[in-house]
Amino acid sequence: MGTVKRAKQKRFFEGYVVSDKMEKTIVVKVQRTFKHPLLGKIIRRSKRYKVHDELMHAKDGDFVKIVETRSLSKTKHMRLVEIMRSVRQGA
Description:
By secondary structure, the chain is mostly beta strands. It contains no helices and 5 strands.
């Protein structure tokens, strides 16, 4: 019997663009909240991801959706899916 290789479930994240100064790369800050297992306190943690933006549409301050992908460089392993809310449209 052959083994069936299953595709890895891709993870989606949402966050704000904090930098768009590189070519075809943006930096997205993703914030997550969770309850501390012992104290029960709500804790907020954030992480910055370098994200590939092929068309260079995302600008600083935009709210975007990103997805995990294969490694594109040493530090870049996310890809832009869509711009959910743009600063240019107004808040």
